[in-house]
């Protein structure tokens, strides 16, 4: 994505993680939910913080700090989960972030240049300036490798089966 494409975005959700500011295009996010109780089944992959039961749907919540190689974030009461749009397999994923600053109009951002190869798989698509503050714009479709997506889909299917068993037991 080049700076000329940033203006075509309807908005950018900005958030904090490990003392840095990141953003994702609004169209990549389905909803933002406060940090909630998460199921932590055995053999949880290290990138997965837990599983959120979102209206009967199992949503794996990923540790974005670990995905980006930032170390461990601090998740206090103002932590949030970005529920990302479905990846086509009908299973959305959540990204755990320390604090959501809000939705900003793309017009407020000035391009500082393409991120180039300074991030794994080019997941930081561009460096932006928001009134003197550096923002790393993430590209949701490049954040995970295809193999990671496949394994997470399998994990979510298992978690969904567990939720279904609980529903059957409650009936």
Automatic annotation (TrEMBL):
Pfam families: CheW
Signal peptide: none
Record-level GO cellular component terms: cytosol
GO biological process assignments: chemotaxis; signal transduction
InterPro entries: CheW (IPR039315), CheW-like_dom_sf (IPR036061), CheW-lke_dom (IPR002545)
Positions of transmembrane segments: none
CheW-like domain residues: 9-149
PANTHER family linked to this entry: CHEMOTAXIS SENSOR HISTIDINE KINASE-RELATED (PTHR22617), PROTEIN PILI (PTHR22617:SF43)
Protein name: Chemotaxis protein
